[in-house]
Amino acid sequence: MATYKVTVATGDMVEAGTNNSISITLVGSHGESRQTTVSFLFLPGKEKSLSVHCGQDLGPIVLIRLHKWRLFLEDAWFCKDVRVTAPNGTLYRFPCYQWLEGVTTVEVREGSGKKLVDDKLQILKEHRHRELAARQEAYRWKNFAQGWPRCLNVDSILELDSNVQFSRIRANNFTGFLIFQGASHFLSGFLLRRSSWKSLDEMRTIFSRTQGRDIGGCL
């Protein structure tokens, strides 16, 4: 019996969590585990830990499969990453950083940055081919007009996968941040000030209360 310690992390954006069922399969060079349920509730910015028991050592873990099942209503989930600790103490990291929607299975490679020529296992070669085929299917080109550059073959950004729309979500978050900053400056007397600053020290009393929070939030 071989026991693997698994930690699954959810992204920290507001809607990243889910109440759908998430399970995981570990894929190693010597075999794969059974599908094991992680949890039915994930909160933004939180982690879930579990043990995956296997009848034998799986060898180096090269892939994981995340399975998402809809219980009642669809509830998208943003997976940050997965960490797997083997029985011998070796830690494997699987950066995910993507949305899982509907009933789906997503395969994530171990995050060691290998090239095509480094894929010695047939399962890794097959995974790379499936990933390439999926991208070619998702991102097709069309001619908007004669003489114009080609563009994506979609009528609206809403037709794209949520992982492509992620920048739009970040833009909304940034807009909210600007509103918060504007309110902070207004309350501190900065926006309505009609007279000149008397000294640099007076300016610091305004910005020290906001910039300190900005820097901490960005880091």
UniProtKB/TrEMBL annotation:
Gene assigned in the entry: Aloxe3_0
GO cellular component: cytoplasm
Chief localisation class: cytoplasm
Localization (cell): Cytoplasm
CDD domains tied to this protein: PLAT_LOX
Name of the protein: LOXE3 isomerase
Keywords on record: Calcium, Cytoplasm, Dioxygenase, Isomerase, Lipid metabolism, Metal-binding, Oxidoreductase
Residue(s) at site: Essential for stabilizing binding to COTL1: 99
PROSITE patterns documented for this protein: LIPOXYGENASE_3, PLAT
Organism in which the protein naturally occurs: Urocynchramus pylzowi
